[in-house]
Each structure stands twice: as C-alpha cells, then as structure tokens.
Design brief:
- The chain has helices at residues 15-27, 32-38, 41-46, 59-73, 76-94, 98-101, 114-129, 132-135, 165-181, and strands spanning 8-10, 56-58, 140-145, 153-158, 192-195, 202-205.
- The protein is of the alpha+beta class.
- It has two domains: 8-74; 80-205, no CATH class.
- The radius of gyration is 18 Å and the shape is elongated.
- It starts with 7 loop residues before the first strand and ends with a strand.
Length: 209
C-alpha cells in the first residue's frame, strides 16, 4: 500500500482511540453536540467504520480524536501515558511488528560489563526505534548518546513539527512500557522523559542502562 502524502498514522495506532470514543458516544457520555463541535465530518465517520490496521489515517484526525478523548475523560497527561503503554503491550502481544520482538532482548544485556551492556543496549534500541517508520509516515527517530550523560541515550525526533502534543505524550508512555518489558529479573528498567516540542522533540533516559 502506497504511503499517503499527508502526515499520517497507521490504523494500528488509532484503532483503540476510535473504539473508545465510539463507546463513549454510544453510552451517552459523549454528546452529539460536542462531536459536532470538536470533530470534522471525516473524523466522525471513523467512529462508524472499521479501522484498517494497515491503513493510513490523517495525523490531524488523530489529534482531534485524542484531544476529544482527553476532554471527556480528563487526566490528560496521565491518560495519554497509560494509552501509550497499553498500545505497546497490544503490539507486543499481537506480534505484528518484528521490532517488538527485540524488546525482550534488552534484559539479556544485564550481565555484561558496563561498556558492553551500553553498546548492546544502543544497538537494540536503534533497531526498536525503526518501528516509528512503520507507524507514522513522517519524522525520524534517531538514537544518540546523551551529550550531557555519556552513560545514557536520547531519542531525537527529526522533522517532528507535525507530531501533536497528544502523540508526543502517548509515545512517551509507549517507550517507557517497552523499557519495562525489557527490564531485568530485578525489575530494573531504563525510564524516559519527554523534552521540548515542535522541532526540538527529544526523549531522554532518566537513569543509566
């Protein structure tokens, strides 16, 4: 399937969002007037159509749908982080993307010495982040050594101007869930934080590998 020209996101990343909004509408918690006010006709149509997991959807539709869900449910940032984590677990369980199989390998590096562990973690992290090109058709996620902490990594997002705030926070939840799934037997996991917006979007590790 050819990729669309407009900035878009894969159906696999938007399906649960559409399903949850449709449930809120059908339960009466999401009034028709609010749907009319917040969404465009093509967005509202998505609530009554099956989402094609391999299809591409306008990132601006994603933004409007996610912002509406946050408005109805509240807990904006926490909600987005939780949804990102849930998405990571769903993709891992579904086995749709080979990169998710690499997450489990992160725990294999715990017994290596510091330098070998750091390099092995970086190689695996670079492989995992190639998943981004399968889920969005814009921006590039680039793994680099943290310029301020050489025992940690950063993920810099190139061409991030079209990434809405709701997706940036959902992605943070996704990344932290993957780190948790790759944690060692002691439960330790590298956690990440979000820095910047727009052209300067960066995810940064908060502890050493």
């Amino acid at each position: 399937m050819a990729r669309p020209i407009v900035p878009s996101i894969k159906g696999a990343s938007i399906s649960s969002l559409v399903e949850d909004l449709a449930k809120l509408r059908d339960s009466g918690r999401l009034p028709a007037a609010l749907l009319e006010e917040r969404l465009q006709p093509k967005d509202r149509a998505m609530l009554d159509e099956p989402v094609q997991l391999a299809g591409w959807y306008d990132i601006h539709s994603y933004r409007r749908l996610a912002e509406l869900l946050c408005e109805v449910e509240g807990r904006r940032e926490d909600l987005l982080l939780e949804r990102g984590a849930a998405a990571a677990r769903r993709l891992a369980a579904a086995g749709l993307y080979q990169q998710m199989e690499s997450v489990g390998r992160l725990k294999e590096f715990r017994d290596l010495d510091d330098d070998a562990r750091f390099k092995a973690y970086g190689r695996q992290l670079r492989l995992i982040t190639t998943l981004s090109s399968s889920l969005i058709n814009f921006s590039t996620f680039e793994v680099t050594v943290d310029p301020e902490r050489p025992d940690r990594y950063c993920i810099d997002v190139r061409g991030s101007e079209e990434i809405p705030d709701v997706l940036a926070h959902t992605t943070l939840g996704f990344i932290n869930a993957m780190a948790e799934m790759g944690s060692g037997a002691d439960g330790s996991a590298a956690s990440w934080t979000l820095e910047g917006r727009g052209r300067q979007l960066r995810y940064r590790m908060t502890r050493a590998v």
